[in-house]
Design a protein that fits this description.
- This is Gfo/Idh/MocA family oxidoreductase.
- The protein contains 11 helices and 16 strands.
- The protein is an alpha/beta fold and about 375 residues long.
- The strands form 2 sheets. It has a 10-stranded mixed β-sheet with strand order 15-8-9-10-7-11-12-13-14-16.
- The longest helix is centred in the C-terminal third of the chain and has 20 residues.
């Protein structure tokens, strides 16, 4: 009997920390027709007990040794959510045990390990591997990408984006995780949180061919660069700038809009997670704003893509190659900052270029079967005169 005929995928969780509690479990519990958690592993018994308490999964399925979980016959696939320095090793163990793998990003601690991850995937072509880049699946980003594909702003010529956040060790939130403040991976927060932003940029602008970066170390609470700014040249001919600061001191709130300027319009992605907005301003000054409420940042769709790949052979969007392509932009920017030179991105992994636009399997639209509410409002504005 094939897996698709057996009911939900029997899923093992390796790591049950904040990412599972805040991000993955809320999506998993809405997908009971696709997944059932049969086992979970964590080095911390207390963390395992916490997961059991809020999920209802019996502690009989718990172990402190992920090898014991991988030896179970009632685990078809695993979700790996461990600290970045351990991702490769646990993924390697899981593939060797014959499990399909959904692994948190990024695909390694540096370029050498990223390329080792590529080689690892190639050794197990019969297995499904998805690197958890949820921004590839986020509704507002996919909607913006569809507009761009339809020519809504004409030819893209400029991208601009700036992020400003405070990053200090607050307990109980991602920023408080000790391994994030003393990272054993190059670039610290810019290879952790920053690859999400690069994923969004690549979704909307395509692949970059050159990068010039500059960095600052201005946060004494993290052992990594606090500031990174990139000037990018894209394969499509557009140029762009991305700047991120993770400050030790309080910073004023900023809109953090990503703006895309085209020959026939401007596209702006804005708003907090609770109300994402995509605003298209046309050449005549009229605007269309699509508002997304109650979306989950793409985790639901990511899990759908993984289950459809495992059950039905659907292609994975969040491949190892796509994750490595995201990483290389950050890593080349760090190289550029250290060497004070422009770096080429012509050695990206073969086949990694161009992020495909994910659509729900069997649906006719972008959002069929996904959570959240979407609404549209339009306005007519006078044309700006020079």
């Amino acid at each position: 009997m094939g897996l698709s005929e057996k009911g939900p995928i029997r899923l093992g969780l390796i790591g049950t920390g904040l990412a599972v509690e805040k991000l993955h479990w809320p999506a998993l519990r809405r997908l009971a027709d696709r997944y059932v958690v049969t086992a979970f592993a964590d080095h911390s018994v207390a963390q395992g007990e916490r997961f059991s308490s809020y999920s209802g999964v019996d502690m009989a399925g718990f172990t402190t040794d992920h090898h014991r979980l991988l030896a179970r016959d009632d685990v078809d696939a695993v979700l790996i959510s461990v600290p970045i320095p351990s991702l490769y090793e646990v993924a390697q163990d899981s593939l060797a045990a014959g499990k399909d793998v959904l692994c948190e990003k990024p695909a390694g601690t540096d370029e050498d390990q990223a390329r080792a991850f590529l080689a690892l995937e190639e050794r197990y072509p019969q297995r499904t591997v998805l690197i958890g880049e949820n921004y590839f699946y986020r509704d507002d980003i996919r909607h913006a990408r569809a507009l761009l594909d339809d020519g809504a702003i004409g030819k893209l010529h400029l991208m601009a984006w700036r992020r400003a956040r405070r990053l200090v060790p607050w307990e109980g939130v991602f920023a408080g995780t000790p391994w994030r403040h003393r990272p054993q991976y190059r670039g610290g927060v810019h290879l952790d949180a920053g690859v999400h932003d690069i994923a969004q940029i690549r979704m909307l602008c395509g692949d970059a061919v050159r990068v010039h970066g500059a960095a600052q170390w201005a946060n004494s609470t993290i052992e990594a660069p606090s500031d990174l700014t990139l000037n990018l040249v894209f394969a499509c001919g557009a140029i762009g700038n991305y700047t991120a600061t993770y400050s030790e001191i309080a910073v004023p709130k900023e809109t953090e809009d990503l703006r895309l300027y085209g020959t026939e319009g401007v596209l702006v992605l804005s708003g907090p997670e609770s109300e994402r907005q995509v605003t298209l301003t046309r050449a005549d000054g009229s605007t269309q704003t699509d508002v997304f409420r109650g979306i989950d940042n793409g985790y639901h769709a990511e899990l759908c893509n993984f289950s459809d790949a495992v059950r039905h052979g659907e292609p994975v969007v969040g491949t190892v190659r796509q994750s490595v392509a995201n990483m290389l932009i950050v890593l080349r920017a760090l190289d550029s900052a250290e060497q004070d030179t422009v770096m080429a991105l012509d050695d990206a992994p073969p086949g990694g270029g161009g992020v495909p636009l994910w659509r729900p399997r069997g649906g006719s639209g972008l959002f069929d079967g996904l959570p959240g509410e979407r609404s549209t409002r339009t306005a007519i504005s006078p044309v700006d005169r020079p």
